[in-house]
Design goal:
10 helices, Dna Ligase, domain 1, 4-stranded parallel beta sheet, D-amino Acid Aminotransferase, Chain A, domain 1, Rossmann fold, single chain, alpha/beta
Amino acid sequence: MKKIGILFGKERSFPEAFVKRVNLLGGTAYKAEFVSIDKIFQARALDYAVIIDRISQDVPFYRAAMKNAAITGTAVINNPFWWSADEKFFNNALAEKLNVPVPKTALLPSYDRPDDTSDASFRNLVYPLDWEAIFEYTGFPAYMKPFDGGGWKEVYKLNDKEDFFEKHSRSRQTVMMLQEEIIFEEYFRCYCIGGKYVRIMPYEPRNPFHLRYVVNGPATNKKLLQTMESHVLKLNQYLGYDFNTVEFAVRDGIPYAIDFCNPAPDADIASVGGENFEWVVETSARYAIERAQAQVQGQDNLTWGEYLKTAASGIPLTEKPISIKEPATKNKEKPAAKK
C-alpha cells in the first residue's frame, strides 16, 4: 500500500475532505492521511509516496522537510525547489514571453534598506530612480503589491504619484511591484491541477472574501473560455505547478493574467462554495492517486516545468514550440459558473 499525505495549517474542510476522498477512491492500494513528522534526518525518506503541501510557504522547517522528502523519492505537490525560487514579477516576465497578456509591471526596490546593508550595498542602484518613466509605463490608477506575496496582503490602489510615494513609504523592507490597473468587465479565478485539469470560476475580487465566488455575471462566450483555459495550461506547464490558481481580468474581451503564483490556493468550502469545493476535492484526490501510481521509490518524482527544461536545452524560450497537454481522461470537466 502506498501512502498519500497532506501537509497543512489552519484550514480544515479541504484536508479532511481530501483524505476521505482518496481513501474512498484508493481501495486497498492507496491510503491517505494527515502528514505526521516527529523527526527529519538528512537523506532519510518519509513514508509517503505523495505529499500535498499546503503550508510550507509559511513554515521554513516544513519547506526544508519537503525538499528532503523530495530528494528521497516522495512526489511533493508542488515542487518545493521551484516554489522556493518562484515569485510574481518573474511570472509576469515569463507570461509576456509566452504571449499571455499581463498588466504592465515594474519592479521597485524596498523603501527601507534590508538588515545588515548600508548605502555601499546599493552602489549599482541609481538614486533617485527614473520615477517619471516608471509612472508613464504603468499609468495611474495603478496597484502596488509585494513581488512575492500572496493573500491580498499589502496591496494598495494608487491614484497618482503623490499617493504612490505616501504608500511606498509604508512598505518598509518589502520589495514591491507597481502594476497597471486593468479596468475589467469580467473576472475569473481558475484552478489548475496536474497541469491538465482546469476549473474556470467567475470571481469578484472587490467583494468580501466569503462572497467573492458568489457571482451572477453574464454568460461568457465559448472563445473566451477556451482562451483562458489555454493560458492556464500554458502558464502552469511552464511554471511546473501541480496545484495552482490563475486569475484573469477581462478588458475589451482580452483576459489579462493578474495573478498566477498561488501554489496553496484557497480551497475552503466556506469561500469557494459547494460546487467548486467538490470539483477540487475530487480532482486533487484522483490526481494524487495518479502520482502515487507513477511514483518510483528513491527516484526523482517531482514536476519540473517547461521553463527549466527549455533553459537546460539552450533553446530560446520564444523559439520552443508550445504543446498543450490534454487531460488523461475523456470526461473532461467543463467550466461552470457558480449559481
